[in-house]
Design goal:
Number of domains: 1
CATH architecture: 3-Layer(aba) Sandwich
Largest sheet: 5 strands, parallel
CATH superfamily: Response regulator
CATH topology: Rossmann fold
Structural class: alpha/beta
Radius of gyration: 13 Å
CATH class: Alpha Beta
Order of helices and strands: EHEHEEEHEHEH
Strand content: 15-25%
Number of helices: 5
Helix content: 40-55%
Length: 133
């Protein structure tokens, strides 16, 4: 990964879900973007200190914390606050929606809805932003 590479960071602990994200993202954004995977928040923080990411796709329940809390952490960092975040959860709750919305994430989606037609508008918006930057 380099700072000039357009990369999406997927933070997901389930191997099956990482594969699902990879397949959908490959349909929508290959070859314009690379995809990096972190299996927990600790690894994600390490990646974020090493490279620039154009988008973060974030599971809510991870081995070392909650994605909804991590969105708030990202928002408090000058270096990370401008990265768009999509939170994806098996069971999004109204509380999670409010917390994520207040932390200014782009959207919260259920994993069942993580399909190319649903994701494409977010990827296109992010692509336009990256191209302008």
């Amino acid at each position: 990964m380099s700072d000039t590479t357009k990369t999406i960071l997927v933070i997901e602990d389930s191997a099956a879900d990482r594969e699902m994200f990879r397949r959908v993202l490959k349909q929508v954004c290959a070859p314009r973007f690379e995809i990096s995977f972190a299996h927990d928040l600790k690894t994600a923080r390490q990646f974020l200190t090493q490279a620039h990411f154009a988008l973060i796709i974030l599971d809510n329940v991870l081995p070392d914390g909650y994605g909804a809390d991590f969105v708030s952490e990202l928002g408090q960092s000058k270096a990370w606050r401008r990265i768009p975040v999509l939170v994806v959860s098996d069971w999004p709750t109204p509380f999670m929606f409010d917390k994520v919305r207040n932390a200014r994430a782009e959207a919260i989606l259920s994993k069942d809805n993580f399909r190319a037609p649903v994701i494409r508008p977010y990827i296109e918006k992010m692509h336009r932003t990256v191209v302008r930057a």
